[in-house]
Amino acid sequence: MESTENSAAVLQPDEFLPNDFELRGNTDSTHVDTNFASQNFWKEVRARFFANKGAVFSLIVIIILCLLAIFGPGMNKYSYSDQNLLEKNFAPRVPGLESLGIFDGNENMTTTTGSKLVNGYKDTGKEDVYYWFGSDVLGRDIWTRVWEGTRISMGIALCAAIIDMVIGMSYGLISGYYGGHVDSVMQRIAEIVNGIPRLVIVTLLMLVLPRGFVTIVFALMITEWIGMSRIARAEMLKLKEQEFVLASRTLGAKDFFIIFREILPNIIGQIITQLMFSIPTAIFTEAFLSFVGLGIPVPMCSLGSLISDAFNSFTTHPYQIIPPIVVLALLMLCFNMLADGLREAFDPKLKEM
Amino acid sequence: MKKYVLKRVLISFLTLLAITLLLFILLQAMPGSPFNDEKLTPDQRAALDAKYGLDQPIVVQFLRYVVNMFKGDFGVSYKISKNTPISQLIESRLPISIYIGGFAVTLGAVCGLVLGIVAALKHNTGWDTLCTVISVLGVSIPSYVFALALSYSLGFKLKWFPMLYSAGEPFASSIMPSIALSLFTLASIARFTRTEMLEVLGSDYMQLAESKGMYGSKLIVRHALRNALIPIVTVLAPLIVDLMTGSLVVEKIFSIPGVGSLLVTAIQSNDYNVVIALSFIYSAMYIGIMLVVDILYGIIDPRIRLAKEGGN
Questions:
Q1: What tens digit of pLDDT does each residue of B22-77 get?
Q2: A residues 302..321 contacting B (CB < 8 A)
Q3: Residue of chain A nearest B308, judged by CA positions
Q4: Cis (ω within 30 of 0) for the bond into A299?
Q5: CA nearest neighbour of B138 among B192, B97, B198
Q6: Closest Cβ–Cβ partner in A203, A329, A353 for B141
Q7: Which of A318, B141, B145, B276 makes the best surface tag, with the fewest CB within 10 Å?
Q8: What is the ipTM for the molecules in this complex?
């Protein structure tokens, strides 16, 4: 009895002495496994992403469209709101291409008496005028307006998607992390908000608030965060019982540190994928609102309002509706394909299915 | 099971109530009062307020509003057709919308299922690629782009179908809108069916069934499809909702006298009463569909129900 007490006093098991450990150094006995070298996560993701042709193609198309949205409106002398009623409904005409028989300003007008070839440029004696995508009912340059519209549509989509990401992510992470009553209450609220059709919220908001960029972003913000919060919560539930979280907590990390610094970096892939999916949804909703008449006020334009304007004369002047529709369809398609590619890159198990 | 159903019903009811409250607040927030006539004396105004119950406390007004909405009494239209009860306006339009919507869902679900099954059975062949291409296109491109393309090509150029809806030939004139509306449903269902079928086809019980000597359509329909169908029920609810949104624009493009085009007209002419009534109807339909799907899903797959009950 006496002796054990004595030895305990001598050993002091939870106290380290300076010479308990010695530096091992990088001697021959330690070596790095070069046969199965550990790969950087992001490097692997990048490699998988670039192996996916569809996703890379989409990325390139999106970059080109973004560049056109940034520089397109400044590429000719027209501005998006300039009207010239003397030059209305001109068909597309591009210098150089016109000698090839395309984009020469000719259009077929079908009337009850038959069809005839019309060329607005020649008929009004404006041989030196060029509208690359034609001009609309009020004589505005469609090229400039399409890229201006793309700029606004993309701006709305990006703003809305990023705000949604922040709100939805935080909501889902907090709800999943704390669990219990907090989770219960937060999920019931989300369920009720989710029960209100997006169409109804957006329509009503647009009726009450002044029409414009901020209102559309706000309307999208209110409705779109639910999907993101679901993903964040599900991922949180998967991760929160894992050892690294326990380790962090043992070392004294606070809840918010664990949520945002320990767990968030592990689910960033899923979050980015969901962000990419929410961009086309936002673009579509904006286009839908504009088409219904609740969009960006004139003279500003978005892809939706351009389609809506051109719709009224789309059988007589189809060239007016084609550019905004093609850009809209390309954007939606490419963002969806990009998001698919990202999802597969972040989670290669999915692809095997 | 009872507890689960009860909970779903309660949540649905609460949601609908929340929406009604939202609509009521909006109505209160609209500028002006119904009695704006300058000539009214304060006494007359008070008498009018009393007659329409506007002197009651706001809570009583709200309760009365809720009762009216649930009874289907939405008030009258102010602008679109003056003083016509809104329920009457909707009554004549709802069947057309439901007809086209039902047509689109059926078309989309049937074609999507077939496409998805074929793609899964002929995994990694041309059929599979075709299915993937169709589903990516269908999911990405908005229905009104399809509607415009169809309207221009089949309607205007080829003159196969009427470009605008005519009451005289409801079937011919609902073909194009239904196709345009159904493409999203078709694409989503095809994509989902393919994934589910691939998973089921690779499962142990399918191998067992095959080794027992089962083959052909019996194997596919009885064993694979039935199990693959379960999760597909869940995507139907959001799809029907997308259909509602899509119908607004598609109805406008084809001039269909349905509920969607009524809502568009109401929005454009600021007829608040009609907008609010239709918002209520859309929400009620949406919540109803979600409820049915949730309960159906709970019946088909007990794991879901247990998980949801266990979560609390």
A1: 888 877 776 655 555 566 777 777 777 776 666 677 778 788 878 887 777 777 77
A2: 307, 311, 314-315, 318, 321
A3: A184
A4: yes
A5: B192
A6: A329
A7: A318
A8: 0.72
